[in-house]
Amino acid sequence: MNSLSQATENELVSGSWDGTAKIWDTTTGECKATLEGHAHGVSVLTLPNGITITGSQDGKIRLWYDGQQQKEFHGHDDIVRGFCEVPQLNGFASISNDEVVKLWSMDGTHMMDFKGHGGFIFSVDCLETGEIITGGDDCTVKLW
Questions:
Q1: Does 107 map to a domain?
Q2: For residues 94 and 101, is the Cβ–Cβ distance under 8 A?
Q3: pTM score
Q4: 11 with 63, same domain?
Q5: What is the average pLDDT across 25-43?
Q6: Does residue 106 sit within a domain?
Q7: Domain containing 30: what range?
């Protein structure tokens, strides 16, 4: 297991090292869908609106709805490590080993880059204020 995300009480999404993500029914424990196509470890973010976002070592980001891929695009120049929702912008942020934080709209339109880390970025979250906070291999925490 590489990543987990839960947006609703009845569904959990897992990202695996085998290049897939799976949508699980938390009531029955059954796999509802397998999201395929990435290479190596997959990071996931699932949202209450039904959108699931995946990224992996192939640098690609994919948007899924109801278990079906809606869009695929080149997100980063290195491993995609994680995501967070940015509700104030109706979008999401992605982080990567390429040391860049990227902001995207929910339809996958690239909005902005934040540069400043001097190493891989491993964690990201969005504060209630709308600011994005990241932590990286350079032993820094940055507020954007």
A1: no
A2: yes
A3: 0.93
A4: yes
A5: 95
A6: no
A7: 1-74
